[in-house]
Amino acid sequence: MGRPGFVWAAPATLFFGLFALVPLVFVVVLSFTTWSGLGDPKFTGLDNWVAIFDDPILIKSLGLTVLFVVLALITQIPLSILLGVWAAGFQRNRAVLSAIYFIPLLLSSAAISVLWRALLDPNFGIPGQLPWLFGDGNLFGKQSSAIGVLTFVAMWQFTPFYTLIFQGAARAIPPVLYQAAQIDGAGTVSQFFNVTLPQLKNSIVTSVILMVVGGLTAFDTVLILTNGGPGTDTTVTPFYMYQKAFRAFDFGQASAIAVVLVLAATAISLVLVRVSGYGKMQSAQDGI
């Protein structure tokens, strides 16, 4: 039996074309114009592109975006691997604890942000009740603590998702590999680093790509928790794009920033796939 024909992929292709490719083309065209949202766009050539790369706030926002992506990687990936491997086991009450831990997956980013904004309110939230730990309690008043809050909330929200990925991958590892390792005298820690981690390679690469793309498009959490503040200290590039479009009504420059984000996310993803060898779709269980 041969592979399904193009007709099977037509609905998905049509959907992707209408809701992804067409808007993307429109944004690229708009990046070469000036438009306030009213009237007709006016062609301005490369003016928007020159302006955005001379904008110090945009340069700062790009650095902050990279910082948030790096912080997400170093916090979420190790924790997700450990929790995923644990959840793949057969410990007592594992299913119940896993179900509780996966609750954030059921909530929207906006709901989670509103929740943590209330919990961390400097006057009525947890920090205000524990001055010996949080000082004045205003975690949103300094750049370092505001970045810490955003990193923590992102970790709380998205770690369960990546945990689910690693849980499935860990359960697919053949038990014979662990049996062979035990025969060779490998303990639990040694088995984790020499058996489990190598078998999770493709899942790690997938998670990193998803995390990078997600970090480059993070917006709602910043909007609700910090509104880009204090000042512009947490103004990441997607949020700055929103400010340009819906506060300054400069849709031309906002479109140019959007194109930069698309190109950056695509380039980074392709590099990760190329460097990791993930594009070859090689199984981690070759030879078994």
Automatic annotation (TrEMBL):
Pfam families in UniProt: BPD_transp_1
InterPro entries reported for this sequence: ABC_transporter_permease (IPR051393), MetI-like (IPR000515), MetI-like_sf (IPR035906)
Domain of life of the native organism: Bacteria
Subcellular compartments: Cell membrane
GO biological process annotation, one example: transmembrane transport
GO CC terms of this entry: plasma membrane
UniProt keyword Repressor present: no
Keywords: Cell membrane, Membrane, Transmembrane, Transmembrane helix, Transport
Transmembrane segments: 12-37, 57-87, 99-119, 139-158, 204-225, 251-273
Membrane topology: Multi-pass membrane protein
Stretches assigned to the ABC transmembrane type-1 domain: 58-272
Family, as annotated: Belongs to the binding-protein-dependent transport system permease family.
Name assigned to this protein: Xylobiose ABC transporter membrane protein
Naturally occurring in which organism (per UniProt): Glaciihabitans tibetensis
Organism classification: Bacteria, Bacillati, Actinomycetota, Actinomycetes, Micrococcales
